[in-house]
Specification:
This protein is mainly α. The protein has 22 helices and two strands. It has a two-stranded antiparallel sheet. β1 and β2 form a beta hairpin. α6 runs antiparallel to α7.
């Protein structure tokens, strides 16, 4: 009993707090009256805040910087704590953005947050597991929660458009299991470290490469990377706005959190993975950018935006150096704030006056200039333009790729040109808001949560640029102790 308690206190304390709140939220969904639906949001915020505070009390071993729990099934170090903090901060913001969603579905508010907290729990477990069995269950649990959240509204459009997500998710899961069967047949091991030790002593690189490529399909699917990106636009269009914001944040954080740890084990023995990653990253940036400029709705625009941003980070992971990995960590930190800020603005405008299409944003600058300026700031950061954190993040990441060798320069150049195309997609939305047209728009000023997140993320996008040196040093430390 003392051993389990020590494992929880040393490595699993934030997850344990989330589990307690999941159990309470599940009980409340069965017995609480509908009139108490507002308590669901505040109770969820309390649980996330307590879990976030608990991450700062997780001990770090000064000798090897890693602490293992539950017979080595869970690892805790600076790197995993970094991602857990990002996941919990993102969950805090997304809970606040769910205000109108739970108001419309107040009879299922506790049910919604039960599934939401389960998704947060599986995302945190994903970045901490040390074997492929735990990885599969964690990432599939996250996928199941995502599918349940997508169908929370139970409209015909949501069911139809999210069906592609369900089908492709199952295909990716089957490919993962197929590749895992090959891997286990060759190695007889399921732990990351044990498989890495086998790689150092074997010559069966062809079969191992084939199995790992199959297993990577589940990550490409969650990140919206070609060839598993066809679900993104339709799924986002069918989802409610807070759920679309969730899909573009939590699974992305969890996916990159574990993908970096896997590449640390395999990429030195299988250099072909580097070429594979930079190729599919370049193709995704090019395809998604060209698709984004043709969109007329903000949901589909943000869907392709997620694919582009994920592919940029995947490009940095492909070369896999200390500089590129720290660049990915800094990029994903900036992405978490900037992407959340964009969704906060979109949700604010939709909840106030049902703005869906890009043309619906015409002339907003003349009605709510402060909202539009903050919205423009986070859009500029998402596009990677100065003077925002997005510019510093892209500059640092692309420079790390450029320093990795001439082999990656053609992929880098094409990716940078495709990123320029993506800027025009964001510019369509910005230009629409600044047009001089007469429109009748009434924006609700009582939605405090969305306004708070929008202003906070706009400010963070600028502050991360100003203090980029110190934050990059922190990201380098996290990358070093990966």
């Amino acid at each position: 009993m003392n051993g389990i308690l020590n494992d929880i206190l040393n490595a699993y304390l934030p997850e344990s707090i989330i589990i307690v709140f999941i159990i309470f939220s599940l009980i409340a969904s069965l017995f609480f009256n509908t009139s108490l639906y507002k308590l669901s949001k505040w109770f969820t915020l309390l649980g996330i805040t307590m879990a976030l505070g608990a991450t700062f009390f997780l001990p770090i071993d000064p000798d090897n910087m890693e602490i293992f729990a539950f017979n080595g099934e869970i690892v805790s170090n600076i790197y995993t704590i970094f991602f857990k903090i990002l996941i919990l901060m993102s969950a805090f913001f997304l809970t606040l953005l769910s205000r109108n969603l739970i108001r419309e579905k107040r009879d299922r508010a506790f049910e919604y947050f039960t599934v939401f907290l389960c998704a947060v729990l599986f995302a945190m477990c994903t970045v901490s597991v040390t074997d492929f069995a735990g990885l599969f269950f964690s990432i599939e649990g996250l996928g199941l929660c995502s599918y349940l959240l997508l169908n929370f509204s139970k409209t015909p459009d949501s069911k139809q458009l999210s069906f592609g997500y369900f089908v492709q998710g199952n295909v990716a899961a089957l490919l993962f299991l197929f590749g895992f069967s090959f891997l286990y047949g060759l190695c007889g091991e399921i732990g990351f470290a044990a498989v890495g030790d086998y790689l150092a002593q074997t010559n069966s690189f062809i079969l191992l490469t084939f199995s790992l490529i199959l297993m990577l399909s589940i990550f490409l699917f969650n990140l919206g990377i070609v060839p598993f990106s066809s679900w993104v636009a339709d799924t986002f269009e069918g989802a409610s706005y807070p759920i679309a914001a969730f899909m573009s944040t939590i699974p992305v954080l969890a996916g990159f959190g574990i993908l970096s740890r896997l590449l640390l084990v395999f990429i030195n023995y299988l250099p072909v993975l580097k070429i594979l990653f930079v190729c599919i990253a370049m193709l995704t940036i090019l395809f998604s950018s060209l698709s984004a400029i043709r969109q007329t709705t903000v949901k589909r625009l943000m869907a392709y935006s997620m694919s582009v941003q994920s592919a940029i980070m995947l490009l940095g992971l492909g070369v896999f150096s200390v500089f590129s990995l720290s660049g990915v960590l800094f990029y994903i930190l900036c992405y978490m704030f900037v992407n959340t800020g964009v969704w906060a603005a979109i949700i604010l405008f939709y909840d106030s006056c049902k703005l869906n299409n890009i043309e619906d944003y015409n002339g907003l600058i003349f009605h709510r200039p402060y909202y539009v300026i903050a919205f423009t700031t986070v859009l500029i950061a998402l596009a990677g333009l100065a003077p925002t954190s997005g510019f510093v993040a892209k500059l640092y990441l692309f420079s790390a790729v450029a320093r990795s060798g001439f082999l990656f320069l053609p992929f880098l150049i094409i990716s940078m040109l495709a990123c320029v195309i993506m800027i025009f997609a964001y510019w369509k939305l910005i230009r629409s808001m600044f047009r001089r047209v007469n429109t009748e728009v009434s924006i609700d000023t009582k939605i405090v949560s969305s306004k708070f997140i929008l202003y906070a993320c706009a400010l963070a996008s600028v502050l991360l640029c100003i203090f980029a040196d110190k934050i990059i040093q922190l990201c380098q430390s996290a990358a070093y102790y990966l």
